[in-house]
Amino acid sequence: MRLNKYLAQSGIASRRGSDRLIKAATTTVNNIVITDPAYDIKDNDIVRYDGKNIQLNDKTVVLMFNKPMGIITTMNDPQNRLSVADLLPKENRVFPIGRLDKNTTGLLLVTNNGDFANRLMHPRNRVPKIYEAIIDRPLDPINISKIKKGIFIGAGEWGKANIISQTKSKKRTLVILELHHGKNREIRRLFHAIDHKLFSLKRVQYAGLDLGHLPLGQYRSLDYNELRKIQSFTK
What we know:
There is one protein chain. By secondary structure, this protein is of the alpha+beta class. It folds into three domains: 51 residues, Structural Genomics Hypothetical 15.5 Kd Protein In mrcA-pckA Intergenic Region, Chain A (Roll), CATH 3.10.290.10; 79 residues, Alpha-Beta Plaits, CATH 3.30.70.580; 79 residues, 2-Layer Sandwich (Pseudouridine synthase). Helix content is 21%, strand content 30%. It contains six helices and 15 strands. Strands 5, 6, 7, 8, 11, 12, 13, 14 and 15 form a nine-stranded mixed sheet that branches. Strands 2-1-3-4 form a four-stranded antiparallel sheet, with no helix packed on it. The longest helix has 9 residues. The protein is elongated. The two termini are 21 Å apart.
């Protein structure tokens, strides 16, 4: 088994995240630092990450977490900022499936299985994500069409989304939109590109799962039917 896959299945990080960690000389095999993610792990090898022995998980854990404002989506922050790691259980070595930026709230899935996380995040699986955005004014038909087709959002990237609905209330407009991508701060960059002010952003659905009434800052395990629903996106 490749070392990056071993770390992923041990709940350290996703496969891509494991690549970065290994290259940063955080992992040893039989007390030798290994920086090659493709290094082949044998059955009797002793693997340590950050000085601690790790082993393969025998059960996949998936939790739903309602991320509060101001929390960064990482399990290890060198600046010691408040992160999701401070609010999630330590015993299962869970980590986030994807990210929500510091000022975005709502549904974040976490797991101890890096391969599973990697499949959910892969662009080819087009996992749907639904957000509630509060903006300054309603979107006109031209901008709705532009957002659907794709807008240049800088850094050589294009962002796109489907506008499901919008509701005006006083001086604010609630927009419900769906994405199938995962670019960094994509929604914020989309609204900036069309000169709309974004006041708040909340993810309310991921892979068909609803955040529902889960309290802010709390987490819960997925039930059997919910696990089957998100697994259908990884086949």
